[in-house]
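Q: My labmate handed me this sequence with no annotations at all. I'd like to see what the chain might look like in three dimensions before we decide whether it's worth expressing. Could you predict it?
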Amino acid sequence: MTEIHGSAPGRFARVKDAFAANFSEGLEIGARFSVVLDGELVVDLIGGHVDRAKTRPWDARTIAPVFSAGKAVMALMIARLVDQGRLDYEQPVSKVWPEFGEAGKAMITLGELMSHQAGLPGLQPPQDPTIWYDREAVLRVLEHQAPMWEPGTASGYHPTTIGFLAGEIFRRVDGRAMAAALSEDIARPLGLDLWIGLPEAEWGRLAEMRKPPAMPFLGELDDVKRAAFLDRGSSPSGKGDSEWRKLDVPSTHTHTDGPSLARFLSLVAEGGRLGGQQLLSSLTLAKATRERSWGPDRVLPFEISWAAGLMRNRGLKIYGLGELAVGHSGWGGSCGFADPETRLSAAYVMNWQSPHLIGDPRALRLIEALYASL
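A: Here is what I predict for the chain of 374 residues:
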């Protein structure tokens, strides 16, 4: 039996039981599940090991890559610039990034881009996978690239490109990389163990990932899905783990622990407040979380309600019970979400990846137990 550490008061006993069941059924190596309710950390469960050989226990200092679950962080960092009046969701991206407007992209708005409606799910033509380690080279390809469908007419998940696109918009407006702004403005001041890219000094406490046993199911394949996930150059590779960890790509390279991601996402649950500070206005939160696209996604095999970088719970029902909940899931099972109706946010972080694109059964079991406890 795996020993479970951390806290889950009696009210949340069934959450602890669900967490333990994931281990007893052989579904985990190591994991952490954290819940913030009314601004307070009320559940924080830790179990298992950081390494595949199961020799080192997962502890309170362990962090892990959460892959696309970090897109929720990216979305709220962009929302902060909107809140400051430095960006507008309805303005063309080309207003702050003129070169982006080439090849029929001049009128794509920030809101369309953040809701995966820009038609740029991957690099076209396909590139060598080492290109992702050269930010400027990736941006030049995206500037010259034409959309793969008419922008604004449908969503099509941009797994990696959205990080370069949103990151460049952020850099041009703020002057800093999003990773630096997150660290300087929020993570360090508020004591969050939350990183975009990971400095070498932190690698000693990083969980070792076990990759999924199979590729995720994407439905019937076409050129759009191949560009997003299956082309040889659809994701970074070819330079080893050390170079990968350093990449400053907010769509895919967030590293964190459960409490830090849950606390950050409590921004949504708490009406824009975090650590006693009003970091986002209610008006901007409404703009950031409203539905911008609904229907069959051209990349993911689901009908999705997209906000400005966040998945809305409408239809999916993977982030609790309410339709106002928003969040994001990451490759292999990680997820973070916030529910303003219950003033709750939660994060699931683990190191044994499954082939589920969203709605990993381990996380769903925890979230179901959580809502049954409320």
